[in-house]
Specification:
Blueprint: H1 2-14, H2 29-40, H3 42-49, E1 55-62, H4 68-81, E2 88-92, E3 97-104, H5 109-128, H6 147-151, H7 153-166, H8 221-237, H9 240-259, H10 266-270, H11 277-290, H12 296-306, H13 308-313, H14 315-329, H15 331-345, E4 354-356, E5 375-379, H16 382-386, E6 387-390, H17 399-409, E7 413-415, H18 427-430, H19 435-452, E8 460-462, H20 465-474, H21 478-482, E9 484-485, H22 487-495, E10 499-501, E11 505-510, H23 514-518, H24 522-532, E12 533-538, H25 550-553, E13 575-577, E14 586-588, E15 598-601, H26 604-614, E16 618-620, H27 621-627, E17 629-631, H28 632-637
């Protein structure tokens, strides 16, 4: 490798090329990743800044290397001639291969004519330089009219004969690679109408689809965007037939696009333009609520927000009542009963539904250490304040009890915010389409945490990852946001050095919630898990589909429940990977669940979904940490 690098540097230097910076090859993973990110971002950068309603087009041509300079000059002239001022070209110089990226609108005949003239110019230029109209990517209707120009009449006739020999009825991709219509590339062009500001820059590439938890049941993010655009297009036509079709689509759109979306935002992680389709869905839910500001549902949301502590105080009672019925009736009878009751109340029970959490008590006394003034503000979220372990789990204590136990062993003085029973980050409201109520809750919580942390001077531990991300996204005070941690990051940076950690578990599973993935906390999960267990299996599932309680209202999203009105595809609902085997090796949960004693995460509702999908109890990673640690001082005394 070094010899090849030396030769490359010598070739560049001998050529006398002038560069802004010296020619330096790097082996630093961070530097290499930055270069690759810049390379991969070229197409998205064009797509992100294009005019709304236009498409991003990509062409792929190649010429002999000795003609590459002529091709570059010709392309520059072409972009200027036809006024594609946002056009760019990049590729693989050693192969004479260039990728052309530019934006194009198809909403007027003039735009289509401009595009046609540009394509004629491009194809003639490449052919004149003895090149190929398609290099490393597939061909199609856009190049079909120019096949004979590139290959000649005789070669094209041979292609047609082979096509007719193997496909006499023209069933396989008719008109895609070979087409006798010289204008096929200017027909049936797909418009991209302006539909919603959040998704108007979507290129419909489909990268987002692999991260969507509900795509196997209803629509993927790309399909949600396409449906939104089509409704917008039909309404813009404003004809009787188009409006009727738009109304018909909206009837299905409510469930397929809005209700069944987890709105976790993992689609943005895969999207090259960073589009969060979930954010659009939340916005559309909010607009639906705004159109009925006097509705009883909206009024109930406001009442719930104003009396949040009272409302959440009743949740443990309800959960314990449901658990009592589970205990008396048994799982089979309870499942049968819930299949009738669930659709009536809009919530579907599963055997791993949490019992009610115990009330929060005063923090235990911290273990005395040599370090002074070790304080932490502990924000026990409304989820952890109301939801305890599930029936059948050998753990009895609630999340906040385990968290404060670990903090005490590490010698931390725990500060609980005043008015904790009324505190909420607002996510529960925002995700349902009540952003005003969610914003009010978030503002109140920010004020509470500012006071408790002395304006961000004391670190803040939040025990639920989705809530932490919501706070980091919506809080205004920068110092406060930088002082907030999820359980794994806080444990790795502040607790582990004060604890004696033992590998007491043989094999466990770890699921990193989608919010933690987006906050780049993956490494902390694995660090804590590997310190506590001999074998760790990391889940690659982008999102479990629970989305708060949405997985209980629409259990088909999270892949479970006979109550679901939508049939879920057969097969393992949970796929996990073992890092020891390799990052690309996936195995079904059924093959390893007998070896994994339990699963751990940092979102109680996600843990319910994961438990239901796998048949193994998932719980907060703080249970694992409490189980596998003792205070250093007590260890020394022993």
């Amino acid at each position: 490798m070094q010899a090849r690098i030396n030769q490359a540097e010598k070739t560049i230097n001998d050529a006398g090329l002038l560069t802004l910076n010296g020619i330096n090859f790097s082996r630093d993973p961070a530097v290499c990743t930055a270069y690759w990110d810049a390379r991969k971002a070229l197409i998205p950068m064009v797509g992100a800044v294009r005019e709304a309603g236009t498409s991003v087009l990509l062409e792929d041509v190649a010429v002999p290397v000795q003609n590459l300079a002529k091709l570059c000059n010709g392309l520059e002239e072409m972009f200027n001639k036809f006024e594609y001022y946002d056009g760019s070209a990049f590729g693989h110089a050693l192969e004479g291969n260039l990728h052309l990226v530019f934006t194009q609108g198809f909403d007027t005949p003039e735009e289509v004519k401009r595009y046609e003239a540009m394509m004629d110019y491009l194809c003639k230029l490449v052919v004149s330089l003895e090149g190929s109209l398609k290099a490393e990517h597939g061909t199609g209707r856009n190049v079909a009219p120019y096949v004979e120009m590139e290959w000649g009449k005789k070669a094209t006739e041979v292609m047609w004969k082979l096509k007719n020999l193997f496909d006499p009825s023209d069933l396989l991709n008719p008109g895609v690679i070979l087409n006798k219509d010289p204008n096929v590339h200017t027909q049936n062009l797909k418009p991209l109408p302006v539909a919603h500001g959040i998704v108007d820059s979507c290129m419909e590439c489909g990268f987002c689809e692999s991260a969507c938890p509900s795509g196997h049941v209803t629509l993927t993010p790309r399909q949600r965007i396409v449906a939104t655009r089509e409704i917008s297009r039909l309404e813009a036509l404003n004809t009787a037939s188009s409006l009727d079709k738009a109304e018909e689509m909206r009837k299905s759109y409510e469930y397929l696009a809005l209700d069944s979306c987890a709105a976790d935002g993992m689609c943005a992680e895969k999207c090259p333009v960073n589009i969060n389709t979930g954010r659009m869905v939340k916005d559309l839910r909010a607009k639906s609520v705004e159109s009925n500001t006097d509705s009883y549902v909206n009024q109930l949301a406001t009442i719930a927000s104003k009396n949040f502590g009272l409302m959440m105080g009743g949740v443990p009672i309800v959960l314990n009542t449901v658990d009592l019925f589970h205990k008396l009736l048994g799982t089979k009878v309870m499942s049968l009963a819930s299949s009738f009751v669930g659709p009536l109340v809009g919530l579907h029970w599963n055997p791993y539904l949490a019992r009610g959490a115990s009330p929060i008590k005063a923090p235990p006394s911290a273990v005395q250490t040599n370090a002074q003034n070790k304080k932490v503000v502990y924000f026990a979220t409304c989820v952890s304040r109301t939801m305890g372990p599930a029936r059948g789990d050998f753990e009895e204590a609630s999340i906040h009890e385990k968290t404060m136990s670990v903090l005490a062993k590490a010698g931390y003085e725990v500060i609980l915010p005043k008015g904790l029973s009324n505190a909420c980050c607002g996510l529960i409201f925002d995700s349902r389409g009540y952003p005003k109520q969610g914003e009010e809750q978030g503002n109140n919580l920010e004020a509470l945490l500012l006071e408790a942390s002395e304006n961000g001077a004391i670190p803040i531990l939040c025990d639920t990852s989705p809530c932490l991300m919501r706070m980091k996204e919506t809080f205004q005070d920068a110092k406060l946001k930088s002082a907030m941690y999820d359980p794994t990051e806080f444990a790795a940076n502040y607790l582990m050095e004060h604890l004696v950690v033992a590998k007491r578990e043989k094999s466990i599973a770890i699921h990193v919630p989608c919010s933690s993935k987006k906050m780049k906390k993956d490494k902390y999960f694995e660090q804590i898990a590997r310190a506590c267990a001999m074998e760790v299996t990391m889940s690659p599932v982008p999102c479990c589909g629970m989305a708060g309680d949405r997985g209980l209202r629409f259990p088909e999203i999270s892949g479970g429940g006979v109550q679901s009105s939508v049939k879920v595809p057969p097969g393992a609902a949970m796929v996990i990977r073992d890092p020891a085997v390799g990052p690309n090796t996936t195995i079904a949960w059924d093959e390893v669940k007998d070896n994994c004693s339990e699963g751990f995460s940092t979102s109680r509702t996600c843990e319910i979904s994961l438990s239901n999908s796998t048949g193994s109890h998932f719980k907060s990673i703080m249970y694992l940490l409490d189980r596998c640690t003792i205070a250093k001082e007590s260890q020394a005394t022993a």
